[in-house]
TrEMBL record:
Name of this chain's protein: Omega-hydroxypalmitate O-feruloyl transferase
One GO MF term: acyltransferase activity
Species assigned in the record: Nicotiana sylvestris
Keyword Nucleus: no
Keyword Acyltransferase: yes
Keywords: Acyltransferase, Transferase
SUPFAM superfamilies documented for this protein: CoA-dependent acyltransferases
Amino acid sequence: MSSSVLVKEAVLITPSEPTPIQILPLSALDSQLFLRFTIEYLLVYKPYGLDKAATVNRVKSALGRALVPYYPLAGRVRARPNGSGLEVVCRAQGAAFLQAVSDLTASEFQAAPRHKTQWRKLLSLQVADVLKGAPPLVVQLTWLSDGSATLAVGFNHCLCDGIGSAEFLNLFAELATGKQKLTDLNSKPVWDRYLMDPKSYKYKSSTSHHPEFKKVPDLCGFISRFNQERFAPTSVIFDKRRVNELKKLTHSQSSICTSFEVLSAHIWKSWATALNLPPNQTLKLLFTINIRNKVKPSLPSGYYGNGFVLGCAQTSAKDLVEKGLGYATGLVKRAKERVNDEYVREVVESVSSSGTSPDSVGVLIMSQWSRLGLEKVDIGMGRPVEVGPVCCDRYCILLPVYDHKDSVKVNVSVPATAVDKYLYLLKSIGT
């Protein structure tokens, strides 16, 4: 079955009111090399009896109004002239808005895509280099053949993280439905990027216990395998009962754990076992940790910059595969517990002074979208029935499930040669 997408309209939406003309510096965390890409959300809606033209006008108007308090998202990101990081040139240049039609239907989004870029054209303005003057915010509304619609939104990751981008989307949606007015914002967005710069800390740090930045030997051609093999997207839902079954398996091996700790450990263990890696290959699970309340003082409410660091669980393939689920869960738990104010200072210092980036050998990266509030983004078509990434890639993403707040959808692409074993292990609640 084809999945063609025809773009009908592409325009720049500028802030609906005058905004400051200025150059704003981005923080050391914002400027990290590994964040120079686009966060791409895909929301699927099943509206009834909708006036499409009125909906398009309402969405465009709401976008223009949302860009008033979030005016840097209408600017352009570039490298600072002195090479010390990134900055945003704010001159109300605008965000991109596209309207399109497709022969896809809403039901096709319930399962994983047939290949990882099947839905690429639902956000058809793809930004290859976020520093080359592209709009940092791209919104595409696509009408599907069954009367449903998708809203795809791309955010330059240098400008905001998952929490910040979701806060913007929820304001945009509330403006579109009239639940919120610009004159009476519930919470105002906060720039204050200097808070995540090393000079705010005046602190000499060490990265000696930051395994996320340490290179490990590639004993199995891991990088070439992940660059050359065909990848198969997967999508599996875990409900509360299945997560609780996983928790029961860990009780004899580790202390009480959270749903995220045990589920991410189970995914990591299943992934590593399916890949059949050499026993002595070092493996890492990298996952995002919100630091807004871990730094002292806490970051202010409404801070929408990158307010996270990477937690890192590390072990050998042999131990991860052969030891019980409680072992892997304990590694994730301890990686979370290591992140405190001092840990964050060390990361800020390291990425600003040496441009340090996480190694990619033996790495699975996990991002938790299930707690961002994306499932509440109602732009006048009801809440989305599906939430996911535009492309299903090697990042493992935990997603919300429509009308099941205790369920999580696990979305990741794995090498095609390992996909059957991975799915079997993931769906088996073993030890």
